[in-house]
Amino acid sequence: MTRDERLTADELQRIDDRIRDDWPTGAAVDFEEAIAYHESLPAHKRFADVLESADRPLLQPRAGVPRLDDQSRLLTHLHESGGADLLPTTIDSYTRDNEYEKAEEGLEKARETDEDTLNGFPAVNHGVEGCRTLVESVDAPIEVRHGTPDARLLAAVTFAGGFQSFEGGPISYNIPYTKERDLAETIEHWQYVDRLAGAYTERGVTINREPFGPLTGTLVPPSIAIAIMLVEGKLAATQGVRSVTLGYGQVGNVVQDVAALRALRALGNEYLPDEVTVTTVFHEWMGGFPPDEARANGVIGLGGTTAAIARPDKVITKSPQEFQGVPTKEANAAGLRTTRQLIDMVVEQDISLDGVDEEQDLIERETRCLMEAIESHGDGDVARGTIEAFASGALDVPFAPSDAAHSAVLPARDDDGRVRIFEWGELAMDDDIKEIHAARLADRAETEGRSQSFRMVADDVDAISDGKLIGRPTGGDGAGREGGETRAD
Amino acid sequence: MQLVEHCMPTTVILGVIGSDAHVVGITILDQALSAAGFEVENLGVQTSQEEFAAAAKEKDAEAVLVSSLYGHAEQDCQGFSELLAREDVDATTYIGGNLAVGQDDFERTRETFRALGFDRVFDSETTPEEVIRSLERDLGISTREAEYDRVQA
């Protein structure tokens, strides 16, 4: 039965031996040798140190292309032209699905055709040596960014390859990223990842872990995201992780976003053990983007402004080409610079917003309801509690592709554009909190002269790409899609 | 509001292909198609070619709608139309989403997927209503113009 208990050295070794056979590059992973390698890296590449000693929000983009030289050039561009403080390596979707053979095929096609045939960097295929070449070619700390339910071999290879930060967690990289993976299994997979990170940490190589806050990136109620962050942080701490960055995805209502980031930091420090250094990361809008780049820059600017007010430790930036897919390096760098401009202009102003404290209180109360439910479902064991809570629906994520979640919760924006819960499913929440949400949503329905329905939710999903925050019923001029016959085949 | 008599509803297969887990698009499309009177068999995310073919055969589907948002559609769809032909699946096939990695020239993308055997190729700005109109034309049917609001108590 899956429990929140530290893996023993034997268990770590056993899993290690098993996974290295999953792909030939696993054979080159050698822990002791890897420790020595990390010790040889200069101070300005030590991820946790750089992150935790910063005095202003640091910027990090997402970026991954299949070929090594290209990835190196891309990251250098983002650092130099974009001003990125921390660098990523975004892993391709086949690798995330452990389809290393398909990744290899995509990589070969990329080499033949000179095109980016994969949506990220196949780090397992490139192996320890490839990763080290990459790490050495850039001048900033570098993190593995992905969406991988079973990230064991990826972690083994990239940690040995010189990466000192690794995104994800057993829930945040299961529920939004897969259909059929069992939650108990992914918890066990990530206990290995965290234990490995802990093993490096104990030897003086602090591996930073960053649970993935945005989850499904679609109108996720802040309290659900924060509860899952606290669970993943606790699970990581048990395995010896000492540097944890908890994440949150922008919803677009400034008051709610500032409140959520403050709640995330406060609860992170409260729930995680003292020996863990807790930092926070704000992800710029993770939902649908406007097709028009100028408008897209507006969305990015709002993210930068919010970050300047809320002061998370890190911001994950977006590019103005987001609607179309993976951006050019120039567009990616531009998103960084737009964000930087807003942060630098706003961070020195003293801005106080009405309603933040009240919203923060509400979010914290909601999060505590969920944490209590997890606690009671698991008799104090957070691993078991999470599994049971998802099974009963007491914990749930809207729009989840995974069979492991009920996905019965439906969100919608209230009349102020804040994300509220429209359908609760079995989500564990006090009645008076449910009444608050219901009242806010009723206000919106009245303003719009229509009843609450899935249509409202669908309109909210499209709203920002159509130029607005709230999915008001159509009639006005949208800024986004034109639709029409000519667009489609 | 047009109400149309159907002897049997038209069945469409819907899913996201390959290793892709983007679910929101097909969730909304499922709702819209259902409200318009289609019988939707939604296979969810990370659906293999074989699963699409098997479902289309089992349900005697008139259309197979493949969604792809993560950019690997070209690799994921190699041999798909041949598979459908081998399985005697005679359905109209659509593909839509972000079909290439990065900033593609859509005309080129459309050619690629027409060459892979798809009857229609839709870009990422396509609305559910456009899909429904295309299905009406291609399958020679008309659907009820439905408000898919449900009155909530």
What's the helix count of chain B?
6
The secondary structure category of chain A is: alpha/beta
| Largest interface chains and counts | A-B, 50 and 44 residues
Multimerization state: heterodimer
Q: Gap between N and C termini of chain A, in Å?
A: 52 Å
- As laid out across the biggest beta sheet of chain A, the strand order is 1-8-7-6
Provide a count of the helices of chain A. Answer: 17
Q: What would your notes on this structure say?
A:
The complex is a heterodimer of chains A (489) and B (153). Chain A contains 17 helices and ten strands. With 489 residues, chain A is an alpha/beta fold. Chain A has a four-stranded parallel β-sheet with strand order 1-8-7-6. In chain A, α8 links the parallel β3 and β4. Chain A is globular and about 65 Å long. Chain B has a five-stranded parallel β-sheet with strand order 2-1-3-4-5, with helices on both faces. Helix content of chain B is 36%, strand content 16%. The chains are: A alpha/beta (489), B alpha/beta (153). At the A-B interface, α5, α6 and α17 of A face α1, β5 and α6 of B.
Which key terms come to mind for this protein?
heterodimer, A: 489 residues, four-stranded parallel beta sheet, 17 helices, disordered C terminus, B: 153 residues, alpha/beta, 36% helix
Write the layout of secondary structure elements.
The complex is a heterodimer of chains A (489) and B (153).
Chain A: H1 9-19, H2 31-40, H3 47-52, E1 58-60, H4 68-80, E2 87-90, H5 93-96, H6 100-113, H7 123-137, E3 142-145, H8 152-160, E4 165-167, H9 183-202, E5 208-210, H10 222-238, E6 243-249, H11 254-271, E7 277-283, H12 293-310, E8 314-316, H13 329-346, H14 356-377, H15 382-392, E9 410-413, E10 419-423, H16 431-448, H17 454-463
Parallel strand pairs in A: 1-8, 2-3, 3-4, 4-5, 6-7, 7-8
Antiparallel strand pairs in A: 9-10
Chain B: E1 11-16, H1 24-35, E2 39-42, H2 49-58, E3 63-68, H3 73-76, H4 80-86, E4 92-97, H5 106-115, E5 120-122, H6 128-139
